[in-house]
Amino acid sequence: MHNCDLLVISCIDFRFQEHLRNFLEKDHKGNYDLVCIAGSAKNFISGNEADKETILKQVKISQELHHIKKIFLINHQNCGAYGNALVSGSSPEKETHVKDLRSAKETIIKVFPDLEVSLYFIEFETEPITTTRFAPVV
Predict the structure, then answer these.
(1) Do residues 21 and 134 touch, judged by C-beta distance below 8 A?
(2) Cα atoms in the 13 Å half-sphere on the side-chain side of 60
(3) Sign of the alpha-carbon torsion through 92, 98, 135, 131
(4) Cβ contacts of residue 96 below 8 Å, gap of 6+?
(5) Model confidence over 88-137: pLDDT tens digits?
(6) How do 70-76 and 6-10 pair as beta strands?
(7) Of residues 132, 119, 137, the one with CA closest to residue 17
(8) Which residues contact 4 (CB under 8 A, 6 or more apart)?
(9) How many CB atoms are closer than 10 A to CB 103?
């Protein structure tokens, strides 16, 4: 039997993959399942039911096969899945992501009340992206 404690749900954006890996390796050393889907938490908010069910199915599989105890749900600044309406680095952008992350967490907890869900928003200063900050969302 294979066990891990954590499932990570993040965006597919290539610009953040190395940063994500570095963030996770600090405390989890490869001991996590990873689901990458464009827009991450946005799929719970503005995706259709099939989008929502796809992610929830991955949570269920990870829980059944690997006995996860927690989920990290991660969105990032300047996400293309959110379109051009949000100005990268602006307060309205961050507020939208925080709102979506919190709402997605509620959806996950309704289906999987025994899992701990932590939320993060990845911020950066300049492009090309050299440094990031994984800001916890409470």
Answers:
(1) no
(2) 8
(3) negative
(4) 82, 86
(5) 999 999 999 999 999 999 999 999 999 999 999 999 999 999 999 999 99
(6) parallel
(7) 132
(8) 31, 32, 33, 62, 66, 67, 68
(9) 13
